[in-house]
Amino acid sequence: IRVDNQRDMEYWSRKKFIAWFGGGFLLIQILIPFIIEYIKSRM
């Protein structure tokens, strides 16, 4: 069985990117309220 290594690498890098992007988006959503509160307290 021959494995298309190039496509496999592409697939994994895309999967990794999506996971990283999704994780970052989740983190931002969690942090936004804290950032807003911080800005309000500084005004």
Q: How are the SSEs ordered, and which strands pair?
A:
Layout: H1 5-42
User: Helix- and strand-based class?
Assistant: mainly alpha
Low-confidence stretches: none
Residue-averaged pLDDT? 89
The beta-strand count equals 0
Task: Summarize the helix and strand pattern as letters.
Answer: H
Largest sheet: none
How would you describe what is shown here?
88% of the residues lie in helices and 0% in strands. The chain is mainly alpha-helical. The N and C termini lie far apart (65 Å). 0% of the residues are buried.
Task: Summarize the structure in short.
The chain crosses the membrane at residues 17-39. By secondary structure, this protein is mostly helical.
Keywords:
43 residues; 88% helix; rod-shaped
